[in-house]
Amino acid sequence: MERSYLIAGNWKMNKTPSEARVLAAAVTKMKCGANTRKMIAPSFVCLPAAAEAIKGSDVILAAQNMAAFESGAHTGETSVLMLKELGVRAVILGHSERRHVYGERDALINEKVKLALAHGLDVILCIGETLKEREQGRVNDVCFGQLEGGLAGVSMEQMARVVIAYEPVWAIGTGKTATPEDAQAVHAACRGKLAALYSKKIAECTLIQYGGSVKPDNAAQLMAQPDIDGALVGGAALDAESFAGIAGFNI
Ligand code: 13P
């Protein structure tokens, strides 16, 4: 079956609101490859400026995180209701920086995934192993555990709004990319896991993005792999020209 591609820029803690406005406006003008959608994920405080800049365009606005609760005494957190009012349509959850720097576990990520889906947001669920886990031969174990933990209680119907992002931790911001073949092997294994958790049809329909040092010069090779359905881009999404080079990949 023919899946579409999703190229998403995770801006992390970069860009001020005025800079975000300029970059978001540039993204609206970028030409995508065939069957490809563009998404940007600015920081919370940059969302209003970015939303204004992409109004009326085909760019999808995403957040980088979200609280596990709707509202209440959660100092420093941002709720799904706040995000929705700003025009956010998707949220990145379980990013490795949330897992490894801020200690988020599968159970918390799962609460967020369920809350986002219940409120109609799309979810990009990030998974991926550390270098140590890879060296121990535990890549599939770790990814399967994160899939199972993150998706617990997510229904078949809701899976239509879930994208998986495979981001090997050792490839993030390091300039080291998994080879297209290595990435493909993990993507195919994860698709197999989704078939076991849900169904073959759901596994075939679910987009699985790759993330970790994606650049204009390696994007096309990665996207040419049968189970790689887009990219979650960090550093290279901060520059309009390099993000355009990835979004416009040509296999
Ligand atoms: P880099 O593209 O900077 O390696 O970051 C990847 C990432 O973490 C995207 O979420």
Could you characterize the architecture of this molecule?
With 251 residues, the chain is α/β, with parallel strands linked by helices. It is 41% helix and 16% strand. It has a single domain (5-247), classed as TIM Barrel, CATH 3.20.20. The chain has helices at residues 17-28, 47-54, 80-85, 96-100, 106-118, 131-135, 139-151, 180-197, 200-205, 216-223, 240-247; strands at 5-10, 36-41, 60-63, 90-93, 122-127, 162-166, 208-211, 230-233. An 8-stranded parallel beta barrel has the order 1-2-3-4-5-6-7-8, surrounded by 6 helices. α5 packs across α7 (139-151) and α7 packs across α8. The mean pLDDT is 97. The structure holds 1,3-dihydroxyacetonephosphate (13P). 1,3-dihydroxyacetonephosphate binds next to β8. 1,3-dihydroxyacetonephosphate is lined by residues 10, 95, 167, 172-173, 211-214, 232-236.
Please outline what is shown here.
The protein is of the alpha/beta class and 251 residues long. 41% of the residues lie in helices and 16% in strands. It is globular and about 45 Å long.
